[in-house]
Protein: 5-demethoxyubiquinone hydroxylase, mitochondrial
Organism: Hypothenemus hampei
Amino acid sequence: MLHTKTSPIFRSSIFLRNYSSKKVTLDEIIRVDHAGELGADRIYAGQMAVLGSTSKGPLIQHMWEQEKGHRAKFEELIKRYRVRPTVMTPIWDVAGFMLGAGTALMGEKAAMACTVAVETVIVEHYNDQLRTLLEDPECNKELMEVITQFRNEEQEHHDTGIDHGAEQAPMYNLLSNVIKTGCKAAIAISKVI
Ligand SMILES: [Fe+2]
Ligand SMILES: [Fe+2]
């Protein structure tokens, strides 16, 4: 006799497989965003250390405050979802500050070029994540709302950088490409380790 019904054991193994692959995806999203927002916080801290008392200080401070909010949200989510942070956390802490301070030392426009490069990569990254999360919008509602809001704020940071002369920075294309490549590598690394 032909059995058309799926056995309970088989059904539960499908459920567990789907559940564990969703858990892996969510872990990866939260781990990498937690690392990214930590890095962003440190980049703006580095920029403020150099340019805080210049005319660009209030502008950078405003973006920094938003990054602190992003970081705090992912600190909350990483605890709530019990996700292991990337082992690279201490490295991104130092590297973020050095990138922010280093480009700021090259001048205000180079600092803005850094912002534009980083935020370009982050906006693309958040859009990729939103497409993934759309596979189950009901289950991923909260995370999608958080990422959508942050994506919009990162886009504002990008536009602010453009409006404040990023593209007139010395060696803009080289600087931009080096930073974008570094950010993409940091994202790839933070997803897995
Ligand atoms: Fe951010
Ligand atoms: Fe940002």
